[in-house]
Write a structure and sequence with these properties.
36% of the residues lie in helices and 20% in strands. The chain is an alpha/beta fold. Bound molecules: ligand BES and zinc ion (ZN) (2 copies).
Length: 492
């Protein structure tokens, strides 16, 4: 999609989106718009309320004008939502060449924020859910060769708006790739596919990728990953990615991201009920957040030294699979009693976290995982559970979350909860055996493997990586974390 910027509505511009805030200025905007729309503001207001995502189409002279409601709250994520809704719902009617105009006292969050959100939202609307349909239907107009977006902005904002819109498009690329990967069915998504995705993206966008195969995993001693992989016909992979900005980056923050890459979670011998098991193709949502953030960071050339680690395997049932009561080793040396083979994510993350700290000593350590049903029962599909041993990190992540609309909410990790994981026969057990405080217990389990890292955060994204959204009719991938972490890294 080609992006251009101008400061006036030229003859050639025929399709214009005009975002309209619903907060008092709306009337002013509609008045200022009268020459363009040919409709009196008072008339328009009878039908158009400016609610988030509301669209009023006006034909005037040779133009089509789409008034797009943004509601009252002047927030970035609202602009994002409105533009994405427009792009999805009006797909069959939109032209390939679109423009968005901010010349009518209609800047909502900030010109840069609005431009980024508009480009990101419009672009994300291109995502097609029917990847395995025989009849793909009509393609989104913005996927066509001559797709173009023109930003019409005040003269002094042209450069900033262009940069912001390009950023929105770059992030959308990474997000859509992750939606595709997470929505991919289990039989199209094995550890090797995750590894290949990383290798490819690294090659295209300039970050280093190392993949440990089964033999290297055995040699390194990733026993948690090996334990979960035992029931599988597909060998595990341990994927390590490193992005280093050009030039001297010794003074830049070093951030380590670890993502749960369970390509399908049957529960193992502690088999899950069948009703919703098909959703477990999304159990690599943490891996997707890490992958997408690696790619977005490299695309945007952010000034940060970023390392990503994804332990990848499925959790299958079979004669060789681990059983409840087994005691396994971990990469860190801590022995683990398996109470429930469905608590597998923490076993592979244990190895990933410990390896990250030992090999890379990042300043900031963050892991993301679709870890517990408990966090879904707590926050539904609307927020991730945030756990951290450092207040400023928790604060900064929450700030990025509030801006991007990828919400997080902090839960405690008091040491009393560690008692739940005491084992009589091993160093620790993987489940308390009681159906309470599951998300907190899981976080306490992970904490044992971070080697006392002073600045760690864990995001339990089980409810938000894959769920109900306004943009599709069934549960689907959200690419949760990509936008949040990119924003967080950018703010460092
Ligand atoms: N992958 C699941 C968690 C999950 C649940 C993700 C719902 C997405 C939606 C995880 O591996 C799991 O099974 N967790 C168990 C842990 C329990 C056995 C200690 C859970 O939360 O029930
Ligand atoms: Zn599980
Ligand atoms: Zn799982």
């Amino acid at each position: 999609m080609k992006i251009t910027v101008t400061s006036a509505i030229g003859e050639e511009i025929t399709d214009i989106i005009v975002p309209v805030s619903g907060n008092g200025v709306a009337h002013k905007t509609l008045q200022l718009l009268e020459p363009l729309t040919g409709v009196a503001a008072t008339n328009l207001e009878l039908g158009f309320k400016g609610e988030v995502g509301e669209v009023q189409l006006i034909y005037h002279q040779n133009r089509k004008i789409y008034l797009l409601g943004l509601g009252e709250k002047q927030e970035f994520h609202i602009v994002l939502k409105a533009f994405r809704l427009l792009s999805v719902k009006w797909k069959s009617k939109l032209p390939a060449a679109l423009s968005v105009c901010w010349l009518y006292e209609n800047i909502h969050h900030s010109l840069e924020g609005d431009a980024e959100a508009a480009a990101n939202g419009l672009f994300l609307g291109r995502y097609e859910y029917g990847m395995h349909k025989s009849d793909k239907g009509d393609l989104h107009p913005l996927t066509s060769e001559d797709a173009a977006l023109t930003l019409i902005v005040p003269e002094d904002g042209m450069q900033a708006a262009e940069k912001a819109a390009n950023r929105g498009v770059q992030i959308a690329h990474a997000q859509m790739d992750m939606m595709k990967l997470v929505n991919s069915p289990s039989n199209h998504k094995n550890p090797v596919d995750l590894a290949n995705w990383a290798l490819n993206s690294g090659k295209n966008h300039g970050f280093k990728v190392t993949v440990f195969d089964k033999k290297a995993i055995e040699e390194a001693g990733f026993h948690g990953l090996l334990a979960v992989n035992r029931g599988s016909e597909f060998p595990a992979k341990f994927i390590v990615m490193e992005y280093e900005p050009e030039g001297d980056h010794k003074d830049l923050p070093k951030v380590g991201l670890v993502g749960k890459g369970v390509t399908f979670d049957t529960g193992g011998v502690s088999l899950k009920p069948s009703t919703n098991m098909h959703y477990m193709k999304s159990d690599m949502g943490g891996a997707a957040a890490v992958f997408g953030t690696m790619e977005a960071t490299a695309r945007l050339q952010l000034p940060v030294h970023l390392i990503g680690i994804v332990p990848a395997t499925d959790n299958s049932i079979g004669t060789t699979a681990i059983k409840p009561s087994d005691v396994i080793q971990s990469y860190s040396g801590i022995t683990i009693e398996i109470i429930d083979t469905d608590a597998e994510g923490r076993l592979i993350l244990a190895d990933g976290l410990h390896y990250m700290v030992k090999e890379f000593q990042p300043d900031i350590l963050i892991d993301l995982a679709t870890l517990t049903g408990s966090v879904v029962r707590t926050f539904g599909y609307n927020a991730a559970g945030l756990f951290s041993n450092e207040d400023s990190l928790a604060h900064d992540l929450t700030k990025a979350a509030d801006k991007t609309g990828e919400r997080v909410w902090r839960l405690p990790i008091w040491d009393v909860y560690k008692d739940d994981l005491k084992s009589e026969i091993a160093d620790i057990k993987n489940y308390s055996g009681r159906p309470i405080c599951g998300a907190i217990d899981a976080a306490k389990f992970l904490e044992c493997f971070i080697d006392d890292h002073p600045k760690w955060a864990h995001l339990d994204i089980a409810g938000v990586a894959f769920g109900d959204t306004e943009y599709s009719s069934q549960k689907s991938a959200t690419a949760f974390g990509v936008r949040l972490l990119t924003e967080f890294l950018d703010s460092l």
